[in-house]
């Protein structure tokens, strides 16, 4: 935001007075402002009414007694630009524009006029539900809304009006600070809200529902600032973008589409990515109530063997650990437990002491002392209303657990196995005690894992902040190059390739003799992007006899595949020894994200395995090494079953050097796909490459 916009956004967020311009929709917004508890002055503008929901109307904007801090605008689209011009001229702070009929309907010109008319006003929308300030009790909102705040909470920005409304109605007791339905983001965008809320002291976490980003590089900068300020950001990405037509020929068009690029962006700047609305709300809740734990060591308590097993099972799948109780601590804890209980973590403390705080408190406290966890959880599914004579016993254990966690300074959550098995009264009581009321075992453990991961990512990223993303290049037509040309570029970039010769059919035999058998024979043609399918490659050719046979058979196979692909150019190469593993490596441009590196399991099963990681460029050597370590084939690189181990640091360095060479030439080289890239203990070798140049370069 510009300085004037930032000040006007402050006025919009905490208004002294609000003007409601419109009819029925403005009347709803007046009711919602009152529902939120807004205590400032309210005016209404409507030429056909004297009163709107008890608020006296003036006929025109010019008749307002003074410039409002905030305006709710719900009038026909054709009148919006003129109204905004009037509001800006009179010094209004900000506007929520509920009116629709702009860019979302294809009328980009009308939206450009709207932007110009807004001037320095902080404008949300158009085509949006609005803004709710839960801490300051103001609302410019288009429908009934719920939600609550204990004086702090999450700031949530959504690109879906209905989803924002659904969140306010959720039965999760998520502490809320602000809600923004961003709409078309004509003036203020998601990045503006992210930057503003990250510096607000009442905001403990920020939630983003993202359908698409307008400025990826700016998002990166603002997300990194939030990370610096210690404010976790949780993103729920929905929808997908079309991969550019020029990239569809490559294998990795299916591996690194828009969703993978978004995930790479989130990982790059420490944003927690979740896959569903429930996980979105539960993760925000945990971060707001307890903050992010330092690590992934958990102490778990249940009064059910089944609950303990469910905790342990899911934790193992997602990388949380339950440290064992060992040594003298086992003896001490056993003395506190009933005879039927087994000392373990997670701990089923069993029913003989259930609901008796004087007995469960020492168990909780001593266990926390023994395992020194980063987080602790107690599983409790509360009885339903009307069946809750036993609720007092649940509350006794909850109080004992909260006391022990507070004294040991361990972040804590009480979680219900089944999400609806925790009533609103209990949820808010737990929040008052600093305990997160989590709904769903998997959602709770996932949130702990992701929050702990955020802590680790923050420390790592801030110790070596990524270089800024490069701006996307103008889309261009691409021209595929033959493998021999691609390998010439790789050699120049310092990447090893097999010894080979590019020759005519007449020269094939002499080239093979110079190189030495066994060899690979490949026909070179820009139309042979995938030579195996075309019959344009022969591998492990052992001698001249086999070479002549392959040379005689290949033209017929290629002609049957694509007559226009037939050429008299061949690449003869030495066969490479079997590697530790085969990778696919792609360097490519993207019209939104700039440039990316894709690493994955390579060879003929690349699409079937779908084992890939995407990194946005520029990246670091450490980023590449973490990417390699995250692949499912990583055990093959680590000395699997007695085989030699790859020097991952050296391999990562080689790959990093290739990314640097690509970025130097990216104005001319649009895409480089190496498949397979053979990995040996101390080096990599590019066995096949598909390179695309920008047309005319």
TrEMBL record:
Entry keyword annotation includes Ligase: yes
Keywords: Ligase, Tricarboxylic acid cycle
Pfam families reported in the protein's UniProt record: ATP-grasp_5, CoA_binding_2, Succ_CoA_lig
Record SMART domains: CoA_binding
GO molecular function (one): ATP binding
Any one of the GO BP annotations: tricarboxylic acid cycle
Domain CoA-binding intervals: 12-102
Protein family according to the UniProt entry: In the N-terminal section; belongs to the acetate CoA ligase alpha subunit family.
Protein name: Acetate--CoA ligase family protein
Lineage of origin: Bacteria, Pseudomonadati, Pseudomonadota, Alphaproteobacteria, Rhodobacterales
């Amino acid at each position: 935001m510009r300085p004037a916009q930032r000040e006007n956004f402050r006025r919009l967020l905490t208004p002294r007075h609000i003007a409601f311009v419109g009819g029925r929709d403005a009347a709803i917004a007046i009711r919602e402002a009152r529902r939120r508890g807004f205590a400032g002055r309210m005016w209404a503008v409507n030429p056909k009414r004297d009163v709107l929901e008890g608020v006296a109307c003036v006929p025109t904007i010019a008749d307002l007694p003074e410039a409002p801090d905030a305006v709710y605008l719900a009038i026909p689209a054709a009148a919006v630009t003129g109204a905004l011009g009037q509001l800006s001229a009179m010094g209004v702070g900000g506007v929520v524009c509920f009116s629709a009929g702009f860019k979302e309907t294809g009328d980009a010109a009308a939206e450009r006029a709207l932007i110009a008319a807004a001037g320095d006003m902080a404008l949300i929308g158009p085509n949006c539900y609005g803004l709710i300030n839960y801490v300051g009790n103001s609302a410019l909102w288009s429908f009934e809304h719920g939600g609550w705040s204990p004086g702090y909470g999450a700031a949530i920005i959504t690109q879906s009006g209905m989803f924002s409304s659904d969140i306010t109605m959720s039965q999760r007791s998520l502490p809320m600070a602000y809600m923004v339905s961003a709409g078309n983001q004509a003036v203020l965008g998601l990045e503006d809200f992210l930057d503003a809320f990250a510096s607000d002291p009442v905001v403990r976490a920020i939630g983003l529902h993202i359908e698409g980003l307008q400025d990826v590089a700016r998002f990166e900068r603002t997300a990194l600032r939030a990370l610096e300020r210690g404010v976790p950001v949780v993103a729920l990405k929905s929808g997908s973008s079309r991969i550019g037509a020029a990239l569809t020929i490559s294998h990795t068009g299916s591996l690194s589409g828009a969703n993978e690029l978004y995930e790479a962006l989130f990982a790059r700047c420490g944003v927690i990515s979740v896959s569903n609305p429930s996980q979105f709300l539960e993760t925000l809740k945990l971060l707001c109530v307890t903050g992010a734990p330092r690590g992934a060591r958990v102490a778990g308590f249940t009064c059910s063997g089944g609950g303990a097993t469910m905790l342990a099972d899911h934790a193992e799948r997602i990388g949380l650990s339950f440290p064992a109780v060992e040594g003298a601590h086992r003896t001490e804890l056993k003395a506190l437990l009933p005879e039927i209980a087994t000392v373990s973590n997670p701990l089923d403390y069993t029913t003989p002491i259930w609901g008796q705080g004087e007995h469960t408190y020492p168990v909780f406290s001593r266990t926390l002392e023994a395992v020194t966890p980063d987080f602790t959880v107690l599983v409790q599914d509360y009885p339903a209303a009307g069946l809750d004579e036993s609720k007092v016993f649940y509350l006794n254990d909850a109080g004992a657990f909260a006391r022990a966690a507070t004294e040991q300074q361990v972040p804590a959550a009480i979680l219900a196995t089944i999400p609806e098995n925790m009533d609103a009264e209990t949820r808010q009581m737990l929040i008052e005690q600093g305990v997160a009321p989590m709904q769903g075992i998997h959602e709770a453990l996932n949130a702990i894992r992701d929050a702990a991961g955020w802590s680790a990512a923050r420390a790592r990223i801030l110790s070596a902040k990524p270089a800024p993303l490069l701006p996307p290049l103008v889309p261009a037509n691409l021209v595929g190059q033959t493998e021999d040309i691609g390998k010439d570029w790789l050699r120049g970039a310092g990447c090893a390739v097999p010894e080979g010769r590019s020759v005519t059919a007449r020269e094939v035999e002499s080239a093979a003799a110079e190189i030495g058998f066994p060899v690979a024979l490949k026909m070179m043609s820009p139309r042979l992007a995938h030579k195996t399918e075309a019959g344009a490659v022969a591998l492990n050719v052992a001698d001249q006899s086999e070479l002549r046979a392959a040379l005689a058979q290949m033209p017929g196979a290629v002609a049957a595949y694509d007559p226009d692909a037939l050429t008299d150019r061949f690449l003869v190469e030495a066969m490479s020894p079997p590697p530790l593993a085969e990778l696919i490596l792609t360097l490519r441009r993207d019209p939104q994200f700039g440039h990316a590196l894709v690493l994955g399991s390579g060879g003929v099963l690349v699409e079937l395995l779908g084992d890939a990681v995407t990194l946005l460029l520029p990246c670091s050597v450490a980023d590449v090494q973490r990417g390699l370590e995250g692949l499912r084939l990583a055990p093959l690189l680590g000395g699997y079953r007695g085989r030699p181990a790859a020097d991952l640091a050296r391999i990562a360095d080689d790959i990093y050097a290739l990314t640097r060479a690509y970025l130097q030439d990216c104005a001319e080289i649009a895409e480089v796909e190496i498949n397979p890239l053979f990995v040996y203990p101390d080096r990599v070798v590019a066995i096949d490459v598909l390179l695309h140049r920008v047309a005319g370069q």
